[in-house]
């Protein structure tokens, strides 16, 4: 009986350790503002205009980012990122779901990272942390 309890406890510890090695993160950014235009010219003359603006500084987005530890310093990674218009909820990037980013890859502590799919250019990886808004 004690062997069965010990085996069950050991199995529970191993399952908990395996669970702690993977992660999925839900993230997002909502950028909406109010734009006031003074003396906006139209065919009916000039007037002022106040309107809600979606994505005034950065595009609004939500996404899933994850990693699974494969052992030996190797991780499987993925990102799915969707852009949307705050004003009406429509998809950005031509109406594609996960149109901003959708990629998978492998990351190694010794050899670096390789990814495949739709993703930002490498310039964003280098310059993004220096952005005024502090976002990627």
Description:
The protein has two helices and seven strands, in the order H-E-E-E-E-E-E-E-H. With 136 residues, it is an alpha+beta fold. The protein has a domain at 21-31 and 58-128. The strands form two sheets. It has a five-stranded antiparallel beta sheet. A hairpin with a 3-residue loop joins strand 6 (101-108) and strand 7. The protein is elongated, with a radius of gyration of 23 Å. The protein starts with a helix and ends in a 9-residue tail after the last helix. Residues 15-20 have low confidence and may be disordered. This is Porin. It is a multi-pass membrane protein.
Sum this structure up briefly.
The protein is elongated, with a radius of gyration of 23 Å. Strand 6 and strand 7 form a beta hairpin.
Topology:
Elements: H1 2-20, E1 22-29, E2 32-42, E3 45-54, E4 61-71, E5 74-83, E6 101-108, E7 112-118, H2 122-127
Pfam families: Porin_4
GO molecular function: porin activity
Membrane topology: Multi-pass membrane protein
Q: How would you sum up the major sheet?
A: 5 strands, antiparallel
N-end to C-end Cα span:
55 Å
Strand order of the largest sheet: 1-4-5-6-7
Radius of gyration of CA atoms, rounded to a whole number: 23 Å
Q: List low-pLDDT spans.
A: 15-20
The DSSP helix count reads 2
* Portion in helices: 10-25%
Fraction of residues in β-strands: over 45%
* Overall geometric form: elongated
Query: Based on helices, strands and strand pairing, what is the structural class?
Result: alpha+beta
The residue-averaged pLDDT reads 80
Order of helices and strands: HEEEEEEEH
The strand count comes to 7
GO cellular component, one term: cell outer membrane
GO biological process, one term: monoatomic ion transport
Signal peptide: 1-20
Keywords: Cell outer membrane, Ion transport, Membrane, Porin, Signal, Transmembrane, Transmembrane beta strand, Transport
């Amino acid at each position: 009986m004690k062997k069965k309890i010990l085996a069950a406890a050991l199995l529970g510890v191993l399952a908990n350790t395996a669970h702690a090695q993977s992660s999925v993160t839900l993230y997002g950014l909502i950028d909406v503002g109010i734009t006031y235009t003074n003396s906006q010219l139209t065919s009916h003359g000039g007037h002022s205009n106040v309107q809600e603006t979606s994505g005034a500084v950065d595009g609004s987005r939500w996404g899933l980012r994850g990693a699974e530890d494969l052992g030996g310093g190797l991780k499987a990674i993925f990102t799915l990122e969707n852009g949307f218009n705050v004003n009406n909820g429509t998809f950005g990037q031509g109406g594609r779901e996960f149109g901003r980013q959708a990629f998978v890859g492998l990351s190694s502590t010794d050899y670096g990272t390789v990814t495949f799919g739709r993703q930002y250019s490498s310039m964003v990886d280098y310059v993004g942390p220096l952005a005024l808004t502090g976002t990627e």
